[in-house]
Structures are given as structure tokens and as C-alpha cells.
Amino acid sequence: MRGNIIGERFIVLSFGESHGRCVGAVVDGCPAGLALREEDVQRELDLRRPSSPLISTERREEDVVEILSGVFEGYTTGAPICMLTWNRDVKGEDYAEIRYKPRPGHADYYAHVKYEGFNDYRGGGRFSGRITAGFVMAGAVAKKLLRDVLGIRIIGYSLEIGGVRAGEFTLEDAERNRYENDVRAPTPEAAERMRKKILEARERGDSVGGMVECVAVNVPIGLGEPVFDALDADIAKAMMAIPGARGVEFGAGFAAARMTGSQHNDPLIVKGGRIVSEKNDAGGVIGGISTGMPIIVRIAFKPTSSIPLEQKTVDLRDLSEARLRIRGRHDPCIVPRAVAVVEAMMAIVLADHAIRAGFIPPVLRRGD
């Protein structure tokens, strides 16, 4: 079974549980010679942390990364890179009730059946958003590799929260503003409206969902291994591995179903001596291969399942119907914190495919 591993050449192994001792990742296949420090990973990990106690969880993990292997004298060695952060702010007692009263919307009951009760149920265990800290660690390595070798930039942001969608903005707007507000919106005006929606839901004891948009620029033509390892297929798989993700679309996405061929097709033109697409409804991938245009992907996230409102469930001990009021510390909206995770997953897939396609060598020379 490879349920905790992603990638063929840039391989990521995820480990840890929500209220276990630690969470982290092992990256195997990263070329030797990449300049890498803990600060590079920490910078990305900090972007995933709760930005405001009013719109995110009250759980306060320091999330200080430790690189245990695979880096020597400031450079990757070609050996597996093991990274982790310790779980400090743990309150497992908050979850004693859910051992036998599974939470609606969570994997509690289904994991209990699959693993016959041996799974760590605290905070969702292996099914918690907490494990995405490891995704971000691995993504930090992938982002630096892509940026240093190929000049690829990855920009994610909250496109929509609670039905409030950002208005007109440029990619430059998004890159400048997304980490300057606590909801990761591309503009200050959108941030204010999105924040209001989250606070209204929190006041009601409820939660809201939304959508993250992520754009990768400077991706060369030719990434992707059709047909079953198509680039968009692998990106979609990676995004759907993020807890709470419920849908993925590229470019025009589901709107393509309401378009004609003449509307959706991206005409080819010559610009600056290069063949490019006149527009990008394909979202940067056609036939499972990158087109050289920006890769544009949107991920829909459901409302946070853990809410303070009383809900119906069952008691597994006697198969009786029961009521449950969830305790613990939870985000009223997971979208803002998901932005850094989406960027990480995009980077992991692109790094894997760049190595497979020969764009990144197994050893980086000093100065590469």
C-alpha cells in the first residue's frame, strides 16, 4: 500500500497524527546540491499557521521545523530529507466523547470501521488538517527547487469564501496582497467582505467553505506523462488529498460544459518569436501535458465539519441515536490556511514531473 506516499521521482512520505507526538514528511529524490536551510522551510510553514484567533482555530502550535537528515553544510545531499514539527498544544481529552460518538462530516466512523477501532481518533488523527504541516514542509523544498532551477513561481489565494468571490484583480495584485490579510484574499476589499462572512458564521456557531485558486507561472512545455500520469490528473489527485477538498477544476473548469468549441479553444499565435496561446481556458494543461501557459487550478473546500452546534450522531457502543456537541478548537473556515497547502501540493507535483521530464538534473552544480 502507498496511501501515504505521493510522487514517482520526487517522492513525499507523509507521517504523523493530529494529537500524536509530531507531524512531518520525508522527501526522497530531491537532487543533491540544492541550497536549503531550515529557515527556507520555516518561512513556508509560518504561512500555514492560524493568522487570527477570530477566524481560525485557537490551537496554537509553534510549528518549528526540524530537518533531521538529507542536508549537509547548507545543501541537500541527495539522501532522504526528513522534516518534522512537534505537537505541543495538544488536548486529547477534548475528543474522548467522539471515540464512540463519531462526528458528522468527519471520517471518524468510517476510519473506525476500516481499522477496527485501532485508529487514533483524537482530533481526527491521520484524517486531520494538522497533517498538512508535513505537506507544506515538503512543498517548501519543491518550491525552492522549482524557483532556483526553472524560475517557476506559484501563487495561491482565497478566491471565494462563504459565497463572497473576489472581484477583478491581477495576478500581481494577488501576489502582493494575499499574505497581507488574514483571509489570504487577493485584494483588501475582498478580504474585508470574506472576513465578515467568516465572523458571521462563527457567531452562529457554524462554518463556511470556499475556494482557493492557484497559479503556476513559467512552467515549461512538456511536463506530464499521459495518459494515466497526466499532469492535470496528478495535480487533481494531490489537491484532493488535502483534508476538506471537494472539487478541482482547471482553466475554464466546469464552465466549459456551457461553452462551445469555438469559445473554449485557445487559439495559437506567434508572440515574440514564440508559439503561445492567445488565451488560457485550458488552464495550462492540454492532453495531460503542460502548454507553457500559466497553470490555473481552483479547489473547492467544504465548510469545516467541526462546529459547536448540536448535531445528530449515533453511539457505537449500543447503536443508539445520540446528540453531539463538538468540543475542541476548530477553524470556522479552513480556506485561508489551505492556501499555503495548495501551493505546496502544486509544487510537489510540478517538481516530480520536472525531474521525470529531465528539466531538473539529479545533481545541481554550485551556482545553478
Describe the secondary structure blueprint for this structure.
Blueprint: E1 5-6, E2 11-16, E3 22-28, H1 38-48, E4 66-67, E5 71-72, E6 75-76, E7 81-86, H2 108-114, H3 132-150, E8 153-161, E9 164-165, H4 171-177, H5 188-203, E10 210-217, H6 231-240, E11 245-250, H7 261-264, E12 268-271, E13 274-277, E14 285-286, E15 289-290, E16 295-301, E17 311-315, E18 320-324, H8 335-356
Antiparallel strand pairs: 1-2, 2-3, 3-7, 4-7, 5-6, 8-9, 8-10, 10-16, 11-16, 12-13, 14-15, 17-18
Key words describing this protein structure:
alpha+beta, Chorismate synthase, AroC fold, five-stranded antiparallel sheet, 22% strand
What would you say this structure looks like, in words?
- The protein has helices spanning 38-48, 108-114, 132-150, 171-177, 188-203, 231-240, 261-264, 335-356, and strands at residues 5-6, 11-16, 22-28, 66-67, 71-72, 75-76, 81-86, 153-161, 164-165, 210-217, 245-250, 268-271, 274-277, 285-286, 289-290, 295-301, 311-315, 320-324.
- The chain is of the alpha+beta class.
- It has one domain (5-356): Chorismate synthase, AroC fold (4-Layer Sandwich).
- The strands form 6 sheets. A 5-stranded antiparallel sheet has the order 1-2-3-7-4, covered by helices on one side. Strands 9-8-10-16-11 form a 5-stranded antiparallel sheet. A two-stranded antiparallel sheet has the order 5-6.
- α1 crosses α8, α3 (132-150) crosses α8 and α6 runs antiparallel to α8.
- The longest helix has 22 residues, at 335-356.
- It is globular, with a radius of gyration of 21 Å.
